[in-house]
Specification:
Helix 7 links the parallel strand 6 and strand 7. The protein has two domains: 118 residues, Aspartate Aminotransferase, domain 1, CATH 3.90.1150.10; 222 residues, Type I PLP-dependent aspartate aminotransferase-like (Major domain) (Aspartate Aminotransferase, domain 2). The chain is of the alpha/beta class and 365 residues long. The chain has a seven-stranded mixed sheet, with helices on both faces. A four-stranded antiparallel sheet has the order 9-10-13-12. The protein starts with 33 loop residues before the first strand and ends with a helix. It is 37% helix and 15% strand. It is globular and about 60 Å long. The structure holds pyridoxal-5'-phosphate. The site of pyridoxal-5'-phosphate has 13 residues, from helix 3.
C-alpha cells in the first residue's frame, strides 16, 4: 500500500499562493465578446510588427539571439538608454521574477502598495519572502506609508507609476524623496508599463533618476503601447551590478525569436504608437463625463483604462454581471482590494460606445 504522504510536496508556502487570475476572455453563448478586461492595446499590434512576426517564420528552427542584440540596440536608441544596462524578460513579469529570485531569501520582504500589481507578489512569495502592503488612502501610493513598512529584511520596494488598477501616479519629487530616504541597499523598482499613455505635467519617467543610481530600476513593456501582449517582451533599465547578477540566472533564450523581430519593428512604427496614445487620450474625458453623468464615481486615470467606483461590492457585481450579459468583458478588481470597482480598458470607438451604453442601461434598471 502506498502511503499518501509518500509523494512530492511543494516547498512550504507554495500552495498558499493564490493563483493569478487573468482577465476573462469568454462569455458562454457569445461568439465574439468585446474584451476590455486586460488593458491590451485597442488598436492591436502595429502592421510593421505583424509583418516582422510573419517573416520570422523562415527562421523558426533557429534559437533566438540569447542577448537580444537587435532588440537591445533598438530599445537603447528609442529610449536613449545604455544597451548594457538593459535586461529583457518574457514580459516585464519575468523581470520582476528575476529580481525577486536574485535578491530575496526566505524571511526577507518586499514592500508595495495595497492595490499594487499582483505579479510583484507571486514570485516574492515563491522565494519564501513576505509581502508588505502599504495603505493607499486616496487610492494612491503614499511615500510615507511605504517607508513605514521598510525594515532590515526589506530587499525591494515596488511601485507602478502610473498604477494599475487605480490609474493614479506619483510625481518625480515624491520618487526622489523615496529614493533619498531609502537605504541604498534596497532596490527601488518603478514599473512604467503605462508610461506612454500619461499626459500629466506632474508625471515624469524615472529613467533619468535611474541613470545615476545604484539601486533604482525602471521597467517597461511591449504589451501595452506596442500591442504585443501575446509575444511577451518587457525590459528593465538597471544598474550594472544588478544586470551582472541577473545575467547569471536568466535563462538564455527567454525572448523568443519572432518576439525579437516584432519588437524591433514595433519601435520603428511611431505612427502606431501615437495613434494608440491618442485613442486613449481622446476617450478619457468622454469616459469621465459620461460615467459621472450616470451617477458613478470615476477619477482621472493615467493608463489605458479607467476605474469605476460603485456604491458597494454588490452593485459592482451586479454591474459586472449585466455588462457581461450584454457581451462585454470588463474586470472586477476585488482581488486588488477594490471589490466595489470595475476596471475598464479603453478600447476601439465602437467598443467604448457599447460599454458606455450598457452602463447607461444598467444605471436605469
Ligand atoms: C502595472 C503593470 N505592470 C506590468 C504589467 C505586465 O506587463 P507584461 O505583459 O510586460 O508582463 C502589467 C500588465 O497588465 C501591469 O498592469
Amino acid at each position: 500500500m502506498t502511503n499518501l504522504l509518500d509523494k512530492p510536496a511543494p516547498k512550504p508556502g507554495i500552495l498558499d499562493i493564490a493563483p493569478y487570475v487573468g482577465g476573462k476572455s469568454k462569455i458562454d453563448g457569445v461568439a465574439e465578446p468585446i474584451k476590455l478586461s486586460s488593458n491590451e492595446n485597442a488598436l492591436g499590434a502595429s502592421a510593421h510588427a505583424v509583418e516582422a512576426f510573419v517573416d520570422a517564420q523562415a527562421k523558426l528552427f533557429r534559437y533566438p539571439d540569447g542577448h537580444a542584440n537587435l532588440l537591445r540596440a533598438a530599445v537603447s536608441e528609442y529610449h536613449g538608454l545604455e544597451p548594457d544596462r538593459l535586461v529583457f524578460g518574457n514580459g516585464s513579469d519575468e523581470v520582476f521574477s528575476l529580481l525577486n529570485q536574485v535578491y530575496l531569501e526566505a524571511g526577507d520582504n518586499i514592500v508595495t502598495g495595497e492595490h499594487g500589481f499582483l505579479a510583484y507578489r507571486i514570485s516574492a512569495l515563491a522565494c519564501q519572502a513576505a509581502v508588505k502592503l502599504a495603505p493607499e488612502p486616496e487610492l494612491r501610493i503614499e511615500i510615507e506609508e511605504l517607508l513605514k513598512l521598510v525594515d532590515e529584511r526589506t530587499k525591494l520596494v515596488y511601485l507602478s507609476n502610473p498604477a494599475n488598477p487605480t490609474g493614479t501616479w506619483n510625481t518625480p519629487e515624491e520618487l526622489a524623496e523615496l529614493r533619498a530616504r531609502l537605504d541604498p541597499r534596497i532596490l527601488l523598482v518603478i514599473d512604467e508599463a503605462y508610461a506612454e499613455f500619461v499626459d500629466e505635467p506632474t508625471w515624469k519617467s524615472a529613467f533619468d533618476m535611474a541613470r545615476d543610481s545604484e539601486n533604482v530600476i525602471v521597467t517597461r513593456t511591449f504589451s501595452k503601447i506596442h500591442g504585443l501582449a501575446g509575444l511577451r517582451i518587457g525590459f528593465g533599465y538597471c544598474p550594472k551590478a544588478v544586470i551582472e547578477a541577473i545575467e547569471r540566472i536568466r535563462l538564455p533564450f527567454n525572448i523568443n525569436l519572432p518576439a525579437q523581430y516584432a519588437g524591433v519593428a514595433a519601435l520603428s512604427d511611431r505612427f502606431h504608437v501615437e495613434a494608440s496614445r491618442q485613442q486613449v487620450l481622446n476617450w478619457h474625458p468622454r469616459f469621465l463625463q459620461e460615467v459621472r453623468a450616470l451617477g458613478f464615481t470615476i477619477h482621472k486615470s493615467a493608463g489605458n483604462f479607467v476605474l469605476i467606483h460603485f456604491k458597494d461590492e454588490a452593485q459592482a457585481e451586479a454591474a459586472n454581471a449585466y455588462i457581461m450579459s450584454q457581451g462585454l468583458i470588463v474586470r472586477h478588481v476585488a482581488n486588488y482590494g477594490l471589490p466595489q470597482c470595475l476596471r475598464v480598458t479603453i478600447g476601439k470607438d465602437d467598443e467604448n460606445r457599447a460599454f458606455l451604453d450598457a452602463l447607461a442601461r444598467f444605471a436605469k434598471k
